[in-house]
Amino acid sequence: MSHELPAATAPPSTPSGLAHRLSRLPLYVQILIAMAIGIVTGQLMGTRAEMFKPASDLVLQLLRLLATPLIFIAVLHALMKNSMGGKAGARLFFLLITNTLAAILIGLAISDFIKPGHYIKLPPPAVAPDNKPFDIVADLLGKIPTNFIDGFQHNDVISIILIAIAAGVALRSVLARQEAAGHSDASLIERLLSTAFQCVMTMLQWIFNLVPLAVFAVVARTVGTSGIKQLLAMGVFVGAVLLALLLQSIFYMVRLRLGSWVRPAHFLKGASDAFAVAFSTSSSGTALPVTFACIREKIGIREESASLGVMVGGTFNHDGTALYEAMAALFISQALGVHLDLSQQVLVIVMAMIASIGAAGIPSAGLVTMLAVFNAVNLPVEYIPLLLPLDWLLDRCRTTTNVMGDMTVACLLDGKIRPEPEAELISILPDDIDESMDDIAREREPIPA
Fold it and tell me: Which residues contact 424 (CB under 8 A, 6 or more apart)?
């Protein structure tokens, strides 16, 4: 009988090689590398670089695939998990809508003034857009769903959002009645919805891992077929967006100065950590804990105002994203030589506001909801990948603007009277006033020698 010693279990091998090392780099570094390789490849291959078109089309198709479930689940999830009612809820809604409207109007004004799309020339799309007479009233009325299937089948974002809002309000009403009756059947739907939201976010992250490939394909094709000057001319669009975001930030500061006890200098100093995290991660969701800590501890906003402005408002408020999507629509239309009249620009405003609600607080999520804005005014979505090389920078800037908007709303909700520290303590702990005041008294007693 043999007694062989068991073979030693080998430690799991660590992936190595160039591909693994590149995958561990931050996404913006991967995009910069892809741009550099794309420029060289386009210069060397010339018009043969058109062969890379399927790579950018792949990412666009996958974004289309997830656009419908992402927007539906994101809106429904936001309505289910957030609560805002009464005067505070109405004031929050007013502040969010007016901030987003101001952002879109600023973006459209800058686009109409600078006209960044006139500096590049795009070829006509493979499929000609629908040139039927445009009627904004008839078009919007036609988006009202007649059943639950057509909107999802045809990726009709307005119909999907209307269904999501109706379902979210109904679920909240059912959940409230069941909780009052001591039942919790609807809570199962809430948990399932949360799980579905996480699943969509995971799949979306898989797609974003392919973004460097799409950037390489777009840059190589653009340089190979049109020359590097065409790519450099897109820098005008970048400058226009950055200018618009700056003007939106100034709008926040003016509104803050007029409507809150918080002064702009105090606000900017206290919010610096939140801005740094938002810019470095490109995710307002990731920055949420830091944002809440800054607004409470460094700026000193009341807890109720901070919760409404940052936690609730941050779910719906994406001013920077709405501004960018409106400007992107005008940029592509100008580059194609397609004029968007006043009624179409009004529709861009409406769709950018609606689409920004469905934008998740993760990197580059605005690229998904941009499909809705382009489809609303019959712009070819095949040019959206052209914006990918620019998105790594602009996404960080508009995310920072989103976070600034959330914090500004919280300060405006807090009013013009600065809270007293002890009064704030009592409002936070109404059931333990005596114990809290005893603790304060003990803390103020001198320490015995």
Answer: 302, 303
CB 328 within 8 A of CB 355: no
Nearest Cα neighbor of 366 from 107, 133, 94, 159 is 107
401's enclosing H/E stretch is: helix 388-413
Model pTM score: 0.70
Instruction: State both tokens at 344.
Output: 């179409």
pLDDT tens digits, one per residue of 333-358: 888 888 887 777 887 887 777 766 65
What number is the average pLDDT over the span 171-183? 77
pLDDT of residue 384: 80
The model's pLDDT over 64-104, given as tens digits with 9 standing for 90+, comes to 777 677 777 777 776 676 555 567 678 888 888 898 899 98
For 64, the 3-state DSSP assignment is helix
> What is the per-residue pLDDT for 45?
85
Contact 32/22 with Cβ under 8 angstroms?
no
CA distance 37 to 422: 60
Per DSSP, 50 falls in state G
Q: CA-to-CA distance for 446 and 23, rounded, in angstroms?
A: 58
Contact 389, 219 (CB under 8 A): yes
Residues with Cβ within 8 Å of 319's Cβ and at least 6 positions away in sequence, in order, are 99, 100, 102, 103, 248, 356, 401, 402, 405
Ranges of H-type helices in 12-85: 18-23, 27-45, 53-81
Question: Which residue, among 283, 213, 221, 219, has the nearest Cα to 59 in the 3D structure?
Answer: 213
Query: What is the four-CA torsion angle of 114, 118, 122, 127, rounded to 10 degrees?
Result: 80
Amino acid, single-letter form, for residue 100? T
Distance CA(43)–CA(46), nearest Å, equals 6
Token output for 67:
């656009």
Which ranges in 143-234 belong to alpha helices (H)? Answer: 150-153, 157-180, 185-208, 211-226, 228-233
